[in-house]
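Students often ask why inverse folding is considered easier than folding. One informal answer: many sequences map to the same fold, so there is more than one right answer. In these notes we will look at a single instance of the problem. The structure comes first.
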């Protein structure tokens, strides 16, 4: 009812506005409308297109607002979204019928008819039936054959091939509608409507995103190039455009709020729905472009359509947001909410483990034949859509928690998949826990054949503090003192010292960082630092030739002589591994380590690396 009300009121308001006002504002072009009977004038090309332009609703704009206000699942949100979709479908049907009526009128005039002749309702009815029949027939065929089309597309397996074939299918249907005298957009819309019922919908959307990103700016650019700026800025266009826009807003508010009020919404809820249906968008622009390219609209009327689309798009968001500020319910008799299915929730030891488990789970479903689409990815979260036939799951990872939203009869499938992945991860953990050759592993880390001409030691150590005579009695004290020195030298780059020490010690627990020839490279990643920073210290072993930091284990059991502390941000990109590799390479190549040990001051150390 919301969709129907919005289309009927918008079409009538827009059409009548054109019939009564166009002859007054543009008498030379549309003066003939004043001489025609009302019914016949309403069927003229320009008034009809102005009515059709007013019917479309931009569901994307409203959806963004509802999503940001967390009102998508509210009674108003559900009604707006469903009404907007029906609104667009009905608008396209009106466009199809309107094109047919205009074509029939033009044909009648070409066969000797006059402008003052009566309306040939029989011919118009036949055209309307034909247009509606073609649309309805194609839509029913698409909906009924959607599964078959999906099965056929899946034979090609490759996501790119599937998406391109779906795109080609929409082009074929668009061409068929154009051949039948209807608008191409209707054929493409019918294809999307059919494929939206399949489990390929998200995969096609994601794969065609680059095409969408490429073509949408071209569309808006072409629409802008079609506007005659001098005509748009003229006084008649601005005044008439203002009146037309006000009527377009009132038509949607009244046409959608009245049915809402009659269906259990209160005044506030009805106004929310009416405001949510106000914005026009790309469909209105397409209709305006079709009217201009077919010669049904003049540059002035095209500019008025652009003006109306722009203003309704701009004013609707603040109006809708303002109506949602009051927390009052939008319906007269709120019903107690039914208990929804709670998502399956799995809490893991850390975010890294949760990320690995989520990926493995998605891979497990993919091997079972499910279509898996990554809908969103943030540093600590991701959302996957997992679907096959009528089964649709949503996997959400937030930090160390994985939630899987599914129906009650799908819990068994999800549980089985989870247990399978847990079993695989346990096997992997057992394999990793077997003794490792740490010496060889670290030796690979300091591979001396590695070359990187882009990063020199001086560049690497620009955010490192130099400590020529460093003393500590234990590894813990050494790390503590080096972190403190780094914090004092670079207070803007290093935050919470405890977080930094925790990151370094956690890394030490997994594998000691003492290398060979007395070199130790403690390091860690943490959000407490903003860039790669650190400290390079020459250990003063003069008081104890056997080493003052005796508990710092090295792979060749040598006494620790040089410690290089390296810290890097956890989430942001940084040349962390390159820094570690370059420092190790420099100190191991030739007599680099001996030259460093010979340095007596910070200046000597800096000059050595320069």
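Output (designed amino acids):
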């Amino acid at each position: 009812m919301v969709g129907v009300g919005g289309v009927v009121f918008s079409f009538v308001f827009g059409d009548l506005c054109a019939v009564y006002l166009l002859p007054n504002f543009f008498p030379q072009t549309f003066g003939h409308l004043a001489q025609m009977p009302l019914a016949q004038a309403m069927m003229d090309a320009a008034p009809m297109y102005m009515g059709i332009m007013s019917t479309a609703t931009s569901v994307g704009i409203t959806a963004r607002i509802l999503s940001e206000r967390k009102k998508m699942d509210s009674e108003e949100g559900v009604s707006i979204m469903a009404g907007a979709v029906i609104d667009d479908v009905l608008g396209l049907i009106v466009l199809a019928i309107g094109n047919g009526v205009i074509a029939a009128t033009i044909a009648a005039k070409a066969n000797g008819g006059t402008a003052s002749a009566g309306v040939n309702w029989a011919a118009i009815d036949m055209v309307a039936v034909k247009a509606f029949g073609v649309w309805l027939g194609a839509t029913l065929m698409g909906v009924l054959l959607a599964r078959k089309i999906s099965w056929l597309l899946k034979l090609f397996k490759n996501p790119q091939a599937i998406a391109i074939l779906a795109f080609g299918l929409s082009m074929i249907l668009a061409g068929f509608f154009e051949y039948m005298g209807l608008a191409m957009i209707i054929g493409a819309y019918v294809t999307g409507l059919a494929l939206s019922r399949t489990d390929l919908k998200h995969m096609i959307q994601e794969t065609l995103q680059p095409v969408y990103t490429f073509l949408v700016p071209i569309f808006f650019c072409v629409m802008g190039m079609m506007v005659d700026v001098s005509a748009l800025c003229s006084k008649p266009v601005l005044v008439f455009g203002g009146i037309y826009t006000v009527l377009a807003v009132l038509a949607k508010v009244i046409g959608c709020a009245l049915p809402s009020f009659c269906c259990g919404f209160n005044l506030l809820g009805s106004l929310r729905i009416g405001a949510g249906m106000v914005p026009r968008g790309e469909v209105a622009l397409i209709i305006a472009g079709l009217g201009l390219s077919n010669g049904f609209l003049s540059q002035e009327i095209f500019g008025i359509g652009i003006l109306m689309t722009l203003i309704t798009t701009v004013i609707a968001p603040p109006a809708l947001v303002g109506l949602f500020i009051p927390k009052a319910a939008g319906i007269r008799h709120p019903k107690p909410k039914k208990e929804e299915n709670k998502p399956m929730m799995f809490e893991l030891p850390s975010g890294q483990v949760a990320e690995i488990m989520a990926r493995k789970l998605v891979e497990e479903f993919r091997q079972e034949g499910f279509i898996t689409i990554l809908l969103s990815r943030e540093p600590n979260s991701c959302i996957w859509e997992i679907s096959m036939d009528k089964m649709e799951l949503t996997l959400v990872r937030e930090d160390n928690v994985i939630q899987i939203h599914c129906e009650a009869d799908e819990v068994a499938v999800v549980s089985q998949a989870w247990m399978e992945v847990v079993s695989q991860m346990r096997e992997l953990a057992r394999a990793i826990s077997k003794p490792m050759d740490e010496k060889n592993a670290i030796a690979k880390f300091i591979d001396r054949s590695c070359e990187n001409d882009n990063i020199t030691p001086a560049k690497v150590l620009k955010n490192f503090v130099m400590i020529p005579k460093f003393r500590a009695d234990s590894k813990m004290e050494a790390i503590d003192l080096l972190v403190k020195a780094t914090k004092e030298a670079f207070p803007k780059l290093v935050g919470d010292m405890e977080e930094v020490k925790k990151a370094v010690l956690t890394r030490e627990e997994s594998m000691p960082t003492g290398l060979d020839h007395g070199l130790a490279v403690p390091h860690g990643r943490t959000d407490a630092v903003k860039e790669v920073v650190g400290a390079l210290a020459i250990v003063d072993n003069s008081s104890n030739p056997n080493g003052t930091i005796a508990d710092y284990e090295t792979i060749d059991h040598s006494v620790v002589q040089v410690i290089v502390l390296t810290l890097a941000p956890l989430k942001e990109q940084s040349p962390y591994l390159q820094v570690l590799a370059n420092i190790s390479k420099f100190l191991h190549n030739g007599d680099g380590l001996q030259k460093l040990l010979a340095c007596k001051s910070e200046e000597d150390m800096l000059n050595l690396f320069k």
